[in-house]
Design brief:
Distance between the termini: 34 Å
Order of helices and strands: HHEEEEEHEHEE
Number of strands: 8
Helix content: 10-25%
Length: 192
């Protein structure tokens, strides 16, 4: 996979990216997530915007699915020179079917900011099923974002999960320094 498809400066120039998360420190979020899902044969990412975790993965997963309404559609049959079904799907996560065996996938939620889809709330049966059946859940968000800070505690406190680690991040590059989005919270959750 060509990582440069997500580093295209024209995406930044025409406003398709989040300027406050385009600085050099912002990618640490994907690097950390990739580290914590390195033992998972399948990767499911919800939210990745235009920079899915795919390009940061260093292991040899069998499949990668990244779902975000703003991600460019992409499909490939290999990742890092190895067979892998890669799909980037520009849809709401509620519009996609997930067919993974329990404990076979890592669930990545970078920049968590899920919104309702019609009458379907983000914190519902679909998301909780994905969370409860994952081998590992990685979630990262800005605590200052009300939508995220009101939803993440319901995920982190699930009785099916335990906190493996919790990291506070501060992104100090110019694009984000001083904004409420410079402070980030990163959790890695494992089945209880």
């Amino acid at each position: 996979m060509d990582l440069n498809i997500y580093e295209d400066s024209s995406l930044l120039a025409d406003g398709k990216d989040l300027p406050h998360l385009s600085g050099p420190a912002a990618s640490i979020r994907q690097v950390l997530a990739a580290h914590f899902v390195r033992d998972c044969p399948h990767i499911v990412e919800i939210g990745g915007h235009i920079r899915p975790v795919t390009g940061y993965l260093t292991h040899k997963p069998l499949s990668v699915l990244s779902v975000d309404p703003k991600t460019p559609a992409y499909e490939a049959a290999e990742l890092n020179g190895h067979p892998c079904r890669v799909r980037h799907v520009p849809k709401k996560f509620q519009e996609v079917d997930y067919d993974y065996a329990p404990a076979s996938y890592g669930l990545v939620l970078i920049g968590y900011s899920l919104k309702p889809f019609g009458s379907r709330e983000p914190l519902g049966q679909l998301l909780f099923s994905l969370i409860d059946n994952a081998r590992v859940v990685v979630i990262e968000y800005p605590p200052e974002l009300d939508r995220a800070s009101s939803q993440v505690p319901a995920i982190v406190s699930r009785p099916t999960l335990k906190v493996h680690c919790s990291i506070g991040l501060t992104l100090d590059d110019e694009a984000i320094a001083g904004s409420p989005f410079a402070k980030r919270r990163f959790y890695v959750l494992h089945p209880n």
